[in-house]
Amino acid sequence: MAGRPPAGFRFASVDLEPGGTRPYEAGEWAGALVVVARGEVELECRDGRRRRFGRGEALWLSGLPLRALRNPTGEPAVLVAISRPP
Q: How do strand 21-23 and strand 77-83 relate by DSSP bridges?
């Protein structure tokens, strides 16, 4: 994201390379509103079910039974999270 976040907030950007997988770490997403800024992201639940989200969609990843975040496409994906510091 360009510029600095508003006072009292922090931004984080996570890149997922084409075909890439990132293990889900609950603490990484605690209290964050997450937007798919580029590409598509697939959330894989612990039971194996998957759901795909595309550019512009907003997600809340706190407290979900997730195993991993995946990029199932041949294009890079970027997630941007905004939260308040703990």
A: unpaired
Q: Which residues contact 71 (CB under 8 A, 6 or more apart)?
A: 16, 17, 18, 19, 20, 21, 39, 40, 41, 42, 77
Encode pLDDT of 29-76 as tens digits: 999 999 999 999 999 999 999 999 999 999 999 999 999 999 999 999
Give the angle subtended at the CA of 68 by the CAs of 64 and 72, to the nearest 5°.
Answer: 125
| Contact partners, residue 60, CB within 8 Å, separation at least 6 | 33, 34
The three-point CA angle 59-12-85 to 5° equals: 90
Give SS3 for 58. strand
